[in-house]
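Morning F.,

Quick status update on the modeling queue. The single chain you submitted on Monday has been processed. Sequence for confirmation:
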Amino acid sequence: MTSRHQIPQWTWYNGKFLFQFNEQLEKNPEKTIKQFFDEFLVSQSLDKLNVYHTKNQGTVILLLYGLLVIPKELWEETSTNFLFQTKGKFKIIVGDNNLDTLGFLRKLRNSIAHANFEIDTDIDTNSVICTFWNTSHGKKNFEVEICYSDLGEFMSEVGKYYINEVQNSNTGTSE
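Structure tokens below.
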């Protein structure tokens, strides 16, 4: 089973984990996170498999979807063009290397929205590589690769942009 096919499974476990964690905080706030996590693994029959971690493909795709796909109009309304520090971490395979921030985010957003991505392990480097592509009229016009850890940096950058810039501009405050 490829990593991509495991995304619904990890998304399900992530949701269960978060909902059960919230319930546990209300019912038994003195329980440690480690105790809760161990009990969760046993309750889901994941304890012997040593496979569940909260930093998984399901979490990554949920974050990307929530940060790029859902707020599409917000990106376009504000003509988003923030200084994009992590763009250089993406290896451009197909497309224009000089896309502005909005153009790049639009292509990446389309990749995620249309499930045009792969999450694979590079055996030579023992790293996880994420590939995203966009097509127009049946032809690829955008394809990028990024390693998993760099994708985490990218998501942090976008998340911070939302919190510090977009949210503050919508509420009339700034930092």
